[in-house]
């Protein structure tokens, strides 16, 4: 019987995975490593996240099914809790996901993942360590269609976050070659295919803002590789529990079959929120900082620190959109995972329970707060 250690249960993907897995009720034991003062508090934190996927009563009932181990994954190599000894699978989702966290990102995402992996290496029955990276570990110059393979360690990164995630993968491979490591790299997780914006509006605000601005840093025929949280959770569970996998690295992405084309998304917005029937999207050069700032001010205003940060975040995210990258998922589909629905297909569900765009951005605010010592090497494109 599988005994799974999950990190990141209080986050977006962790909540989605746990909600999906606990509903299956297949006898698998779930152990969640959670930052908390004690197990009760940790369970309440997990229940709080699960309540984004279901009613509060069911969330409490599901949370009672998991074992809580209070802890910080970056210190896991010093954690001798015997409940970790019999773990058979590790699903390592936890990470510092702030774009501009500076050196702290490397301490958490690279050094912290190594600490957890060292603890995992002492688990007697460990069958798989599923490490969650990011598709953008490939760096900014790997497109337009990125294959499922190792990244160039010297790749150029737009933000320190993706560099730290790439460094984590490299460090795990170099320092723990005997770990039964599988890497899953999600692309961009937006919304939920049936619950819409309820579980999270992370990055949904950006797609909505692009629509309201009618301004793209790329051609309207370009693409954005987006997947819903529930589909990503199902794919991760397959990669975690399938006894034999053909590869040790996968994209959890839309890939060519389901990639979102901005022009299609534009038509989907028009169907959901009819305007003039034209909804013309203009392209602009991201280096034209005034063009985006002036348009942003016109549409949202720039009258609060929140909106100023949202402009900076829009610019940072637009730098990724401008790359027009699609992440091939042939390996994942060959493991039996069905293609993801494209965002155009579930946009209406997301908009149905969406609040104001600026409020949705507030949910992502932490991702875009700068560390005091942001690296000087950041390209101008992402410095607002
Ligand atoms: N969401 C996406 O679009 C996306 C795309 C590509 C890759 N990914 C990757 O997928 C994974 C999950 O992403 P997400 O969006 O679910 O992230 P998230 O919502 O930001 O959640 C991060 C999780 O990590 C936990 N965590 C952070 N530092 C920790 C520590 N030192 N010890 C214990 N737990 C810690 C957080 O716990 P607290 O609640 O205690 O802070 C939280 O549960 C990450 O590895 C991310 O890089 C996500």
TrEMBL record:
InterPro entries: FAR_NAD-bd, Lipid_A_modif_metabolic_enz, NAD(P)-bd_dom_sf. Residues 6-235 form the Thioester reductase (TE) domain. It comes from the Bacteria. Pfam families: NAD_binding_4 (PF07993). This is Linear gramicidin synthase subunit D. It comes from Methylobacterium dankookense. The lineage of its organism: Bacteria, Pseudomonadati, Pseudomonadota, Alphaproteobacteria, Hyphomicrobiales. The gene is lgrD_1.
């Amino acid at each position: 019987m599988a005994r799974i250690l999950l990190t990141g249960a209080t986050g977006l993907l962790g909540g989605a995975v746990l909600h999906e897995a606990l509903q299956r009720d297949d006898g698998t034991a779930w152990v969640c490593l959670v930052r908390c003062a004690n197990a009760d508090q940790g369970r309440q934190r997990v229940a709080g996240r699960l309540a984004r996927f279901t009613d509060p009563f069911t969330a409490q009932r599901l949370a009672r099914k998991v074992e809580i181990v209070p802890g910080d994954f970056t210190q896991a190599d010093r954690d001798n809790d015997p409940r970790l000894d019999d773990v058979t699978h590790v699903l390592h989702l936890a990470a510092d996901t702030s774009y501009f966290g500076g050196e702290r990102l490397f301490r958490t995402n690279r050094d912290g993942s190594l600490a957890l992996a060292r603890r995992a290496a002492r688990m007697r029955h460990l069958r798989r360590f599923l490490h969650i990276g990011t598709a953008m570990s490939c760096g900014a110059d790997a497109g337009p269609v990125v294959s499922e393979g190792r990244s160039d360690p010297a790749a150029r990164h737009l933000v320190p976050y993706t560099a730290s995630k790439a460094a984590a993968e490299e460090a795990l491979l170099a320092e723990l070659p005997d770990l039964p490591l599988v890497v899953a790299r999600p692309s961009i997780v937006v919304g939920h295919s049936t619950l819409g914006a309820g579980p999270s509006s992370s990055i949904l605000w950006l797609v909505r803002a692009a629509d309201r601005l009618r301004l793209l840093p790329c051609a309207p025929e370009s693409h954005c590789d987006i997947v819903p949280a529930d589909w990503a959770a199902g794919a991760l569970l397959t990669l975690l529990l399938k006894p034999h996998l053909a590869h040790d690295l996968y994209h959890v992405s839309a890939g060519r079959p389901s990639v979102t084309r901005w022009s299609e998304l534009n038509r989907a917005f028009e169907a959901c929120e009819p305007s003039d029937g034209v909804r013309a999207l203009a392209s602009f050069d991201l280096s034209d900082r005034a063009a985006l700032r002036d348009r942003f001010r016109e549409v949202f205003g720039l009258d609060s620190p929140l909106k100023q940060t949202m402009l900076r975040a829009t610019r940072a995210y637009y730098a990724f959109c401008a790359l027009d990258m699609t992440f091939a998922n042939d390996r994942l589909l060959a493991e039996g995972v069905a293609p993801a629905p494209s965002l155009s297909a579930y946009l209406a569900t997301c908009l149905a329970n969406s609040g104001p765009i600026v409020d949705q951005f507030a949910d992502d605010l932490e991702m875009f707060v700068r560390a005091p010592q942001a690296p000087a090497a950041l390209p101008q494109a992402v410095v607002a």
